[in-house]
Structures are given as structure tokens and as C-alpha cells.
Design brief:
Helix content of chain A: 25-40%
Oligomer: heterodimer
Structural class of chain B: mainly beta
Strand order of the largest sheet of chain B: 1-2-6-5-9
Number of helices of chain B: 0
CATH architecture of one domain in chain A: 3-Layer(aba) Sandwich
Largest sheet of chain B: 5 strands, antiparallel
CATH superfamily of one domain in chain A: ANL, N-terminal domain
CATH class of one domain in chain A: Alpha Beta
Structural class of chain A: alpha/beta
Shape of chain A: globular
Helix content of chain B: under 10%
Largest interface: A-B, 38 and 21 residues
Distance between the termini of chain A: 52 Å
Amino acid sequence: MNVMMVLEMAAQGFGDRVACVSGEDSLTYQELYDAAGQVAAYLRASDCDYLAMLDISSLALPIGLFGAAWAGKPFVPINYRLAEDQVAALLPRIQPALLLTDATHTASIPGGVAVTPIARDAFIDMARSAKETVKPDWHMDPEEVAVLLFTSGTTGAPKAAVLRHRHLVSYIFSSVEFGAAAEDDVALGTVPPYHIAGVVSVLSSAYAGRRVVQMPNFSPGGWLETARRERVTTAFVVPTMLAQIVNELQRTGSANLPRLASIAYGGGKMPAPVIESALSLFPETGFTQAYGMTETASTITVLYPDDHRAAFASDDPAVRRRLVSVGRALPGVELQVRDGQGNVLPAGQRGEVYVRGEQVAGEYVGKGSLLDAEGWFATRDAGEIDDEGYLFLEGRADDVIVRGAENMSPGEIEDVLVRHLAVADVCVVGVPDTHWGEAVAAVVVLKPDATVSVEELQGWVREHLRSSRVPQSITFTEALPYNETGKLLRRVIRADLATGH
Amino acid sequence: MNQLKPGVRLRSAVCDTEVVVIAAPAAEVTLSCGGAPLLEEGQEADASVTLETGGDGTQLGKRYTDEDGVLELLCVKPGAGALAANGVALFLKGAKPLPSSD
């Protein structure tokens, strides 16, 4: 298996279709295939063991991903928003490498590291200079490493997650139907290349035969304008992006996107008010929620459009609640919830989520496989599965607040607080407490012009949950800290609370 | 007779068909296309084999399975021959279109 099979099939099946649009420039699937062959020859002739990419999305993303796969060298997208010293710390871990980048980053390559920069435009020109279609000669060893992705390092030094060809290919083969896209399907790509969803969408779009319009710099107005101009039919967003789009539309009026058939979202917790507003603002659009992580080659559970609409329309609290579920396991993926002793818990009981399947990699460079003897991977996410298989996430297992002898998840308290009319955003964390061990603290962002007292919010939580869940302290702030892909940085909030900010 | 390994790519000896093994039974199985055994990389076709006509051939991107549903092949290059396992014709597996999640 090799991810190049995906592109080989696309080039055979619909080679004349446009694969990727970047500004004024574009590539068909056949041109992309030829460009990948050219890059493979270039990489094989070089002494590089890796192709790294420290740049925004461009045509170089699909060309580089496939070209590296063809050459049998790992593709390593790096977060271009990292500070210079953070990049400098990562590069020695992937040498010798060819580094696809732009002029501003070339300077951050430290001395003595075997990393050769190549500018984005020079790389694309080199790739597109292919004179003929090269015969497929990539390796078919499924164990070969296709992609290394550095984790966002929200809890320590970045780890390099290993994705082998078999993980990515089995995800595509089990979740995408070949050639399923219509001729005029257009996807709007806003997720950066260093995010697993940005990598995988290159593969799933190729296998489905979809045209991708890249949008490297997200803004809600720009997103709406591009979606209208490019007649976009499907888009993937992280929750913070959807929240901004909803805000923009509440300010400016109708979405006016009749061709937008599908919005998929994932990469973080979606607040119920945001998805509810979005369902009203996009009445004809199907919403799909995907839950997954780098270590599982992206999506493992999906909440489909029908699930969304059924939950949104239902008066049954158990069904209504599924709007904030991450859905059910994909075919070929198994889920379990286990307690702290490793016992598998029945439906409806909260514990840590485990996952197993062909696409589950669960491996880091230098640490080996973290799968247990039966192939299960501990996600470190806390959650429960209902009796129909819908998974509800309750935050990271490490974020569980232990107050006295009682375990509680920040998520359930946040879900209640965010429903208060004055609250725009909220984060609940555990803070050290001499009496209880940990106490519940909430940091709240109010809606513009809204006011509410701490006592009223405490009363609101008491009305809906057990009294132990009532935050002992509530502080107000302008905005919560998120990383650029929408992950709430709880450790920053904990540190701020500890130092009294 | 061969024990099949998922991920292995095989090609027809008598037409353009190429397949990848997606899932395979533990037991040994002989795969053929157009009446001739499928070849692994590096294997040469027996010059005497000819395409056995009949059937609709193979279609790009389609999955082929057996009666038990254990064996699954993905067609990565279409051709005129029909696929079979131990002499029994394989059939097209139904599509399961899913909305894009990424």
C-alpha cells in the first residue's frame, strides 16, 4: 500500500478534473500525478531523508505530500506559526531534509543542521517541469512511513506522530467512495497543512474526485465571499471558525450560499449555541461532525447530517443531546470506554475513550507503538457512549476535576454555563483547594453589552446540576486562549488562575 | 495457492486489471482474472494463457468480494477480465456513499 495509489486512481479515473486551486493557479489530477513523479525523482536524487513543509497551503501541499510518498520519504508539515526557536528545535529531529518554505522562514534554519531550503515557487516550478508521465515505481510496503506530524505540544514538548502508508490508505478506503464527488463539487480548504485534517483532506478529495479551493488565511468574511465566488459545495471548519462565521452572519444577514450542501467540522468541542445558530443560518446545509486525532489518521467517529437534524428537531432530551455528541464509530473502527482500572464500562458510564482499527497508528518517533496487546489506543479523552453508540466527549481525561471523592468533567459544567443568555464562551478548570483537593473555577466571556453577576451564574449551575458542580469562583475575561486550530488552552487558564490574573 | 496479505498489489496476466488486497481470509486462496492466475510484482505471465471472455470486466475504484464477505479486492486499474477466487466468480460490493467528513 502507498498513498500514491489514491492519486494514481484519481489520475486514471478523472485526470482532467481540477484537483486544486490556489489563487490564480490550479492543477488537474493528471498534472498533480506528473508533478508528484517529478518531485519523487528530485528527492531520490538528493541526499534528503525527509520532505518537510514550513509554509501555508499552496499547490506545493498536494504535490509535496504525494511526491514524498512516491519517493518513499516521510512528509513532515511543520506549524508555520511557531516561533523561530521552536522551529529550530524541531529541525534537528528530521535531518537531512529538504525544507519547502518561504523567504521569511529560511533565516530560522539553525547552523549545522542538514536542512536544505527550497522556496515555494521554485518547488512548484520544478515539480511542474515534468515532460512525461513517469511509470509508477513507488514502494508498496505498507509499513513505510508516509507522514510525520508534530503534535501541538499543548502538554509538553511536541511529539512526532508516525503515520504509515497503511494507516492513511485504510482510512481513505474505508471512509471514502472512489469518484463519489460530482463534476461540479468544490471543497473549501481552510485547515493548515500541519493539521491532520489538512493532510487527510488532500487524500480524501483526490479519492472522491473533488476540486479543492485553498484558503490559507481564514477570516469569516473572506470565507463567505470565497464560498460564494467559487460556488463551494462542501467545507471543513474548526469550531472557532464556525463561531466566527455565525457571528458574521448574525451581523450581516443571510448566508446566501444555496450551493453549500455540506459543512463538516471537528478538531475541538463545538458549543451547542454555535451549532444551533448554524443550523438555523444554513437551513439547507448538511452538517457533519468528525472526531479524530493525529494518532488515528484523523476521523474515527462521525455525526451525520441526519443525526444533526433529528436531534435539533427532537423534544426527547436523550435525542436532543446528540447534537453535542461526536457521533458513531466509522465502519472498521471500534470504541470502548474504560475506567481507571482498565475495566470496560457499559453504555452511559463515563471513563476514558479507547479506539481500535486499521487506521489507528498510536505511535511516536522514539517511543514506539502505544497500542496495547489487543491493538487498543488510549485517546486520553474522557467520555461516554449512549445505548445507540453515540459518543459524548467530556474533555481530556487529564482535565477531570476531582473535588473531594467526586470526579466531574469540565464539559458538563461548561455546557450548562454556555446556555446562559449572557455567556458567549466559558472554560471550567480545577484549581487547588485546601479543603476539597480541587475546586471548580470558571472563566467566562460575556456577550457584547451583557451583564450578569457571579451569584446569578452560580445559581444557574445549581438549577441544572448537582451543587458540587457549582463553580466556587467565577472570573470574567475578554477572550479565552485558543491555539490557531481551535484547541482551548486549559493549561494557560490554569496558570493564569494560579497567578491571580 | 497463496496466503494473501492485505496491501499486496496483484495484476492480471491477460488484461489490464490490477487489484489491491483489502481484506483476506486466513486460508490459502487462488485468485484469477480472466481465467488466469493473478500475478504478484516480478512474476511473469505464462505465455500460454489467454483471456477468458464473459462477465463485465473490472471497474476502477470498485470493491470485489466473495460469498462469505471475508475476501475484498479493490480494483486500482480496470480491465476486461472477471475476478474469481478458487474458480468462483467474485461480485461487486455495494457502494456506501458517506458525506465527506474532512
